[in-house]
Design goal:
104 residues, mainly alpha, 2 helices, rod-shaped
């Protein structure tokens, strides 16, 4: 009997743990990307739903502040949640002192 192909030095196949680790690493990276995308889209949907409500609340508060302190508390319109949080930081620093009334 003779073999059909010449017998060459057979290359050992990579071990199962190294093949498995390579597959899991790729799958884990894909999953992380999908989760990041889901978070971005979730924040975007929340922004679409909450910003109109925040605009109305801020407009009502601005009206009250104009009556009381003669200056608005917010710069409207809000375009992102970041603007809303920046306004919150400004409100903590805002000192509401009444303007001096002219004496007659």
């Amino acid at each position: 009997r003779r073999p059909l192909a010449p017998a060459e030095a057979a290359q050992p196949a990579p071990s199962f743990p190294s093949r498995s680790a390579a597959w899991w690493q790729g799958a884990a990276d894909d999953f992380k990307r999908e989760v990041e995308w889901l978070h971005v889209k979730g924040e975007q949907i929340l922004e679409y739903l909450a910003l109109p409500v925040l605009q109305l609340v801020a407009a009502a508060l601005n009206f009250g502040m104009l009556l009381v302190a003669a200056r608005p508390a917010f710069q409207l319109p809000f375009k992102t949640f970041k603007e809303v949080t920046e306004t919150r930081d400004l409100l903590t620093e805002l000192q509401l002192t009444p303007r001096k009334q002219p004496t007659i």
